[in-house]
């Protein structure tokens, strides 16, 4: 198995507080896996055989509801953990992880988790911190879904993605991975038709630019205004 360069992971949140020797020991049990665009890292309901860190690319986590509807849970960016089902007491993956562009993950066998956290308790602490942050994000999205209009929810979703994976370009901030209008609809609990209508309207107003699986936020501050507006503030 090829040796993994510790410099690739030393600054990642999962490994905060570890020295070079400790990182070497942890990485001994990891393997690097290339996942092509649209390839699956793991699937919902599958035995949680491994846990992962994304080194390169982007991954979409999605769930299929009992009614057969697909919901986009979140997007995973480089440096983030995924598939840590065993850390929260799950035996199976609760969602499907799909590469949205060519990606590279580090994978550890699930059987290594109890041994690693016993030897390196900080690993469990760092993972819990990550899970806690995602739980807060989920709470925010639940509140948005329960209390906000579709326009606000879509604006929040675009801003969240830009904050997570935005890249400064000449005409604004581009969400730096392929994302479709259907993906946004599945993130915000609405329909493709509604998202298409909203984005087309925003494009006409110069707030965004959109192409095939590409979105640029031209006026992020105006989207913040849309996201935070109250019902009373909306135009009649």
TrEMBL record:
Alphabetic keyword roster: DNA-binding, Transcription, Transcription regulation
The segment(s) forming the HTH crp-type domain are 148-221
Q: PROSITE patterns recorded for this chain?
A: CNMP_BINDING_3 (PS50042), HTH_CRP_2 (PS51063)
Instruction: State if Transcription regulation is listed as a keyword.
Output: yes
Alphabetized Pfam families for the sequence:
cNMP_binding, HTH_Crp_2
Q: Which residues form the Cyclic nucleotide-binding domain?
A: 14-100
Parts of the chain that traverse the membrane: none
> Under which name does UniProt file this protein?
Crp/Fnr family transcriptional regulator
Please name the taxonomic classification of the source. Answer: Bacteria, Pseudomonadati, Pseudomonadota, Alphaproteobacteria, Hyphomicrobiales
